[in-house]
Amino acid sequence: MIAVYDRVRDRMLASDPELARFHHATRSTLACLVTAALCIGWLVEHHRPITFAAPATLFAMIAPLFLRDRHLSGWLVSLGLLYFCTCASFALSALAAPHPVLRGALLLTIVYAGMLCHALAPRAAGSALLALVAFYLGLYLHPSRDVLHAMLALCTVAPLVVGGVGRVLLPPKGVDPSPRAPARARDFHSRLSHTVNECKTRMHNQLEALARHRHHLAWRPAALAAVAALLALLAGDEMSTERSMWAVISTFVVFLGTHSREGTLARVGKRLVGTFAGAAASVLLVALFRGEPYVLVALMAVSVFGWAYFILHAYTRGVFFITLLVGLVYGQLGFAIVALAVLRTEEVVLGCLIAFALSMLLMPSSARAAILAQPQRLAAPRSR
Q1: Considering the entire predicted model, what is its pTM?
Q2: SS3 call for 47
């Protein structure tokens, strides 16, 4: 066991010398588990469906990956933006669920805005991803107004847990996890006032920067992603009206961060391989451990950690773990796992094919981009 541990540690240090990915994955996993435990415990005690905890748990799982600010004021701004986008998107989708045209328009708006701003900062990419996934959740659960209010109220637990995990239990490097308590109440209020004012200043500066650098926004990829989302939504509805969003999400994440046909093709291949492997693994594990909820919950925790550890650096493995997690959750809720895995695979394949076809028609090749950039690099020394 010691030898195995040493080999695993050496491999982790070789690929992640400062263990940054490990710390981010640990924060996501711990925040997700604590939020789920608190929310589900309260729901079971009050005889409410455990699905009410889905938005809060989703936020606690995804948000820590995109909270990269060291200073508290910037970190709080990022947390607030992520939380607002999640709750607003979930509420809009829940209210628009009975109106197909309205929900389609809102979905395309979210895809367009998310792709437009995703490269500005980690908080922008996280807000786009959370808004899209929360929109799917609202469409799928379509809660009534009273239930929606209860779910949003329960969501307030999530940022508190994320804050406790991300700033107290596992703070970023250079942040004191146990600051000295203020000697007087006046000192506490002054610090609080200073933090609030700094948050307002940072938010104002971010809005000004967005206005100044609007030409840096991804206008063309945003339009391409919106067209792909529309086609995926229309085609995906033919397979499943409830889960066609899996095709839409696939088009979004395939285009996220890709700038060429080759990059899109590579992302499509990785997503397909990860989805196939994750769907097969979920079917096998649910069949083996059906009726053993504690084992499935442990596997879910491992899946959350694996997704958070790999998704930003080893995309195939990250997709494998998120597909496995989805299968385990639906299997634990009593769905027919084989049919669900087949449907998820079909929707993902559909979304990937649409994204690939549009990229071949409308995106430049990486070779052409390199040729166009070469004269600029050659001319740069002369300009100096």
Answers
A1: 0.84
A2: coil
Structural domain includes residue 200 = no
Is 381 a member of any domain?
A: no
**Sign of the torsion formed by the C-alpha atoms of 72, 75, 79 and 84:** positive
- On whether both 296 and 360 belong to a single domain, the answer is yes
Residues 54 and 168 in one domain: yes
**Tokens standing for 86?**
């999640």
Range of the domain at 348: 219-364
Q: pLDDT confidence of 382, banded at 50, 70, 90?
A: very low
Which tokens is 198 given? 């700094």
The per-residue DSSP string of 235-282 comes to HHHHH-TTTTHHHHHHHHHHHTT--SHHHHHHHHHHHHHHHHHHHHHH
Domain count, the chain: 2
Tell me if 378 is assigned to some domain: no
For 258-275, give one letter per residue: b (16+ CB within 10 A) or e.
Answer: bbbbbbbbebbebbbebb
pLDDT digits (tens, 9 = 90+) for 11-43: 666 666 678 899 999 999 999 999 999 999 999
Q: State whether 289 and 354 are in the same domain.
A: yes
- In angstroms, the CA 254 to CA 276 distance is 16
Number of separate helices (H) and strands (E) present in the chain: 16, 0
